[in-house]
Write a structure and sequence with these properties.
There is one protein chain. The chain has helices spanning 61-68, 80-85, 110-122, 128-147, 154-162, 177-181, 185-195, 211-221, 272-283, 289-297, 329-340, 342-345, 350-367, 371-384, 393-398, 402-412, and strands spanning 4-6, 19-23, 29-34, 40-47, 89-94, 99-106, 201-207, 245-251, 257-263, 301-308, 316-323, 418-425. By secondary structure, the protein is α+β, with helices and mostly antiparallel strands. The chain starts with a strand and ends with a strand.
């Protein structure tokens, strides 16, 4: 077991995360950030499985597993009860790229966390009863959050509009309710066996725990779990879009809404940082371009927002807003497009660029003060290639130039690279 020690980079005005990492023989990566000023420890386990890894005919499984993982493991009937008795709290989330489980617990009870997390990595307590309970929970969530909520199905429409080949074409909840309703016990056992094992996971800790404690507990509780080789991913590559796509729907909603998407780079790309700053220039608060031009001055929209999805594979930039009364979806989209295209024709001035950079920096520094965020960041950036990227984010953003902003805008904001959803209120 090889130990690697990383020292913080010398970047002013940042909170650097000092961490140490090692890997167990079964492939589990372990990273620890020691902070003796707190009585708590945050534990994070990131599994590299998301909706993109699902069978197109059996979608929603990554999210279903987020629920099943709390339904009891092979030796522990209840996950929540012993954690709560130890003073801990926990949660989880799933997206298209990975599934993340996290908890916070008093330092003196940290072994309880290792016991709980290792047992459900070892094996869940699979049963028809537990599957049926969680299946109904997920089906109800699908209906309440996506089908019966105003604008809830927007991304169920946008994903297959923007992606024709890549599995980003469905949301984490799944393509349709029937995929979860028809999930069998053997289906979920196969999914667990494929993705939930040490070599596909990263365990991170931040708080009042030492490297020696971490190593001893990791070897004790996770070491006996059998390792498994990871099969290479062979995800289909989304072809370049060559013409604008549009879709118009009517729903029982109070106001029209416009969603416009453009294909952009992956999270691994060096261009990600320029792309992220572009969305901050466009809609990073009430001094942003879209708000000032389209909401405050010209009153084209009542609300407007732009963001990057930040997916691991080639992703999307999204602009969405609600047109003002009397403004059609088409006219609102034309005004939005015209405003965004200014980034192509006019270089961003240094004052505006520095302002959005400073806002990003303050957000990153503030986020690193939270131990749960530190643990997640270390796991996430290790998935990107190196946990030390967590300490270099500000450096990467600072290095973005006005020329890079314009270059990326020119490549992204083409009409033949766009997809638009006109989401209309029924008259």
């Amino acid at each position: 077991m090889q130990l690697k020690t990383h020292s913080p980079l010398n970047i002013a005005t940042t909170i650097m995360i000092h961490f140490e990492k090692f890997e167990l023989p079964n492939g589990l990566k372990v990273i620890v950030n020691t902070d003796t000023s707190t009585p708590l420890v945050a534990m994070n386990i990131l599994y590299q499985v998301g909706a993109r890894d699902e069978d197109p005919s059996k979608t929603g499984f990554a999210h279903l597993f987020e629920h099943l993982m709390f339904g009891g493991s092979v030796n522990i009937p209840s996950y929540d009860e012993p954690l709560q008795m130890a003073g801990g709290e926990n949660n989880a989330f799933t997206n298209n790229d990975f599934t993340n489980y996290y908890l916070t617990i008093p330092t003196q009870n940290i072994e309880t966390a290792f016991w709980l997390e290792s047992d459900r990595m070892l094996s869940l307590a699979f049963s028809e009863k537990s599957l049926e309970v969680q299946r109904q929970v997920v089906v109800e969530e699908f209906r309440q959050r996506y089908l019966n909520q105003p604008y809830g199905d927007a991304w169920l429409l946008l994903r297959p509009l923007t992606y024709k080949v890549h599995p980003y074409q469905w949301a984490t909840i799944g393509k349709e309710v029937s995929h979860i309703e028809n999930a069998t016990l053997q289906d979920v056992k196969n999914f667990f066996s494929t993705w939930y094992h040490p070599a596909n996971a990263t365990l991170t800790l931040s708080g009042n725990i030492t490297l020696q404690q971490t190593r001893e507990l990791a070897e004790k509780w996770f070491g006996p779990i059998q390792g498994k080789a990871m099969s290479p991913r062979n995800l289909p590559v989304e072809p370049n879009q060559t013409e604008k796509r549009t879709l118009s729907v009517e729903r029982e909603v109070p106001y029209d809404s416009v969603y416009k998407c453009w294909h952009s780079c992956s999270r691994f790309s060096p261009d990600f940082y320029a792309t992220d700053l572009i969305t901050d220039i466009l809609s990073g608060g009430k001094s942003s371009r879209l708000y000032n031009a389209l909401v405050k001055d010209r009153k084209i929209f009542t609300t407007i927002n732009a963001y990057t999805m930040g997916d691991l594979d080639p992703s999307l930039i999204v602009a969405e807003g609600k047109p003002a009364a009397g403004i059609s979806c088409e006219d609102a989209e034309a005004e939005l497009t015209s405003e965004i295209e200014k980034l192509i024709h006019e270089s961003v001035n240094e004052k505006e660029l520095n302002k959005v950079k400073q806002k990003v920096e303050s957000g990153l520094v503030f986020g690193d003060m939270n131990h749960a965020s530190r643990a997640l960041n270390l796991a996430y950036f290790e998935m990107l290639g190196d946990a030390d990227y967590a300490n270099r984010q500000i450096e990467f953003y600072r290095n973005v130039s006005a020329e890079q902003i314009q270059k990326n805008a020119r490549e992204i904001f083409r009409e033949d690279n766009s997809s638009v959803l006109y989401y209309r209120a029924k008259k």
